[in-house]
Amino acid sequence: MSATLSLSSTFISRHGLDEGLKSVRCSPRRYNERCVRKVGALVTAKFDLKPPPYPLDALEPNMSKKTLEYHWGKHHRGYVDNLNKQLVGTELDGIALEDVIRATYNKGDLLPPFNNAAQIWNHDFFWESISPDGGGKPSGELLRFLERDFGSFEAFVQQFKSAAATQFGSGWAWLAYKPSRLDAGNAINPRPSEEDKKLIVVKSPNAVNPLVWDYYPLLTIDVWEHAYYLDFQNRRPDYISLFMEKLVSWESVSNRLETAMADIAERERAGERKKEQVEEEA
Ligand SMILES: [Fe+2]
Q1: Crossing angle for the helix pair 97-105 and 114-127, nearest 10 degrees?
Q2: Which end of the chain is more exposed for a tag (fewer CB within 10 A), N or C?
Q3: What domain of life does the native source organism fall in (predicted)?
Q4: How far is Cα 58 from Cα 51, in angstroms, rounded to an integer?
Q5: How many C-beta atoms surround the C-beta of residue 49 within 10 A?
Q6: 245-259 per-position pLDDT tens digit
Q7: Using CA atoms in the order 11, 15, 21, 25, what is the torsion angle rounded to 10 degrees?
Q8: In the chain, where does DSSP find H-type helix?
């Protein structure tokens, strides 16, 4: 597989580890954390199966323990196990999950690890999008943004539900923030520029997520059948309605919006500094 990839050195982060060190090294990521383990002279990168931030029965009766046992315990675990096997010995071994996703999206011509890598990220994000105390209505800046960009909270809910219901086959629906700076470099931006600096609703097939377009995901719903079949059988619209009414953690979505806005502001400042530096050197 490595022969099919051309990655810059910024993707490779395993240099500098001491030989023979038995340790776990973690570095902070924008949306997740990943540990690089080194045991003896063998270096291998290992993604862990991250548990949901609540017990498996905590979402009942809205989402059953049995669904969590299969969805998290079998499907999510399978993506982690498969990716760890796929990455060993490749040039992707040792880089952050988000970088694996961006590198292997490959302008939509997916490289082999993409689906497992993106599904790990999507599921971590999904479990943290819901809560035993979820549902209701957001407040504060998030509500103001939703009202500004969709007309009303109710209009946003309708658009999100529609995207989730109409995703053909397996996939995801997202609320995301679309910044004006588009430097993903590895994907064709699917949305027009008049949607810059706005919240948008977008759906994606299979494992694709908005990171590949350089958008900031804020909320997602998994509409693969494995997410709802045990509780709802084929009634996807009922699952989506219950998700919006009882499960969405608006606290998580608000925190993500705050983090996204801070990150975007920092990127803009960095861009300005770079521009000034270029002008000074000219
Ligand atoms: Fe899933």
Answers
A1: 130
A2: C
A3: Eukaryota
A4: 13
A5: 16
A6: 999 999 999 999 999
A7: -30
A8: 65-70, 77-87, 97-105, 114-127, 140-150, 153-166, 229-232, 236-242, 250-281
